[in-house]
């Protein structure tokens, strides 16, 4: 009997909704979602008796197609759908080829990144429509309330519906104009997974995986495979490779310095390097290039003390020029501390222009604490870690910071962390 | 060994609500597969049975009136059946406790097949 592929229904939900929305029109997104729900219900009724079909994906698409045809026949006599649409669906086969479905997912991805939506809404919408996350699952991923996410999604869907049609991918100029928003949304999605607020490591790992999968969809389209897309994919792979080592054997957050580097995923590392090379095919130097390059420097050091910190500081300087952000500046200061010692690092932090914006970021206070600890100012260090602890977003972070406070009492500094992707 | 029929009953609303998100559906599906497999491995399945469409016709009375059926809204509908072998009714009922339909507000009706010709 065919095995049920992991996350089959999540993956299929995105494919089916994207394709049906193209057929029904974007204003009928809810209808598309309904038809998918029907197809899923049917699977749950039939598969337990007959087993998982040989090609579950094709089974679900065929079931949804029949249901869609039923709906269209019924609606044609009613009103909502244009008659030519129903006619177009009669010889339905060409509408459901693998190529068409792939294009539909890309159209939907670009549509979700509508300029009328905030970045947070774009990310939520992609997770919901293309990754099959329910309202509750999106809320869990971003540690927000069901009501809040529901409101955000329904507003976003409204904006989407008003756009009349799905994003047209055939026009290279339009495509190029929208692509950066998609890259950014995917980056934010990955970032939320890498060190987001959700206390569930499994939830965050799923976000990273979905970001990688959607970026993979971009890579399947020649129009989307720009150097920046390759760089984005590279940075995700290089960071994702370190995920298995980010939690130690006891499930505690493990900083870069303490990570067992043998647990870094060699396949993802190699894939990241390959993508990074592909990203170097033109003059473009995006923020993703720089972040991927930083991740690659870390990846190429067999031990922490082998890290080329001078190179990392230089990359952060360049990144700051491309995308100025206090978090990037903080990461740069930490690299400076690694290169030149804690005093220089603290000076670099003091020199961050919009340092105030970091006040609510727990790892800003943790960085101050760490550098104070390293230069023997245990009391100051303890205060900073206390401030970080008050801002901690989940049990894992709290436990980590409590350990650092204990280290202050023992006067033991051993931390050199690099928090992953930089822009929040 | 005696034979029993499991009738899987639930309302349309309940089964849809219980399905939840795609990831929850994934879990329900896995639970169904695992439960069916366990029964089969233990030799309790005489016939895996079939799922049933939720709609059909009711033919009634001496007038042979045909109406849409099977039932009015929000009543239990039989979604499928399986033929089971068990020692006795108590064992058949006990075995049905693992059925995932119960998680979603559904019901398993356990009915002995009438033994004839004895």
Question: Describe it for me?
Answer:
The complex is a heterodimer of chains A (424) and B (118). Chain A is an all-alpha fold and 424 residues long. Among the domains of chain A are: 1-96; 107-198, no CATH class; 320-424, Serine Threonine Protein Phosphatase 5, Tetratricopeptide repeat (Alpha Horseshoe), CATH 1.25.40. Chain A is 68% helix and 0% strand. Chain A contains 20 helices and no strands. In chain A, α11 (227-240) packs antiparallel against α13 (266-279), α15 packs antiparallel against α16 and α16 (326-340) runs antiparallel to α17. With 118 residues, chain B is α+β, with helices and mostly antiparallel strands. Chain B has a single domain (2-112), classed as Alpha-Beta Plaits (2-Layer Sandwich). Chain B is 31% helix and 36% strand. Chain B contains 3 helices and 6 strands; from the N terminus they run βααββββαβ. In chain B, the strands form 2 sheets. Chain B has a 4-stranded antiparallel sheet. Chain B has a two-stranded antiparallel ribbon with strand order 3-4. In chain B, a hairpin with a 4-residue loop joins β3 (56-60) and β4. The two termini of chain B are 15 Å apart. The mean pLDDT of chain B is 89. Chain A binds chain B through residues 4, 6-10, 12-13, 37, 40-41, 43-52, 132-134, 136-137, and chain B through 15-16, 19-26, 28-30, 32-33, 36, 48-51, 79-80, 82.
Keywords:
A: 424 residues, mainly alpha, B: 118 residues, alpha+beta, Alpha-Beta Plaits, two-stranded antiparallel ribbon, flat
In short:
Chain A is mainly alpha-helical and 424 residues long.
Q: Tell me about the biggest sheet of chain B?
A: 4 strands, antiparallel
**What is the CATH domain class of chain B?**
Alpha Beta
Span between termini of chain B: 15 Å
Q: How many separate structural domains of chain B?
A: 1
> Major beta sheet of chain A, specifics?
none
**Given the C-alpha coordinates, what overall shape of chain A results?**
elongated
Number of strands of chain B: 6
* CA radius of gyration of chain A: 24 Å
Question: What are the segments of chain A in which pLDDT stays under 50 over at least 5 consecutive residues?
Answer: 415-420
> Helix share of residues of chain B?
25-40%
SS elements, strand count of chain A: 0
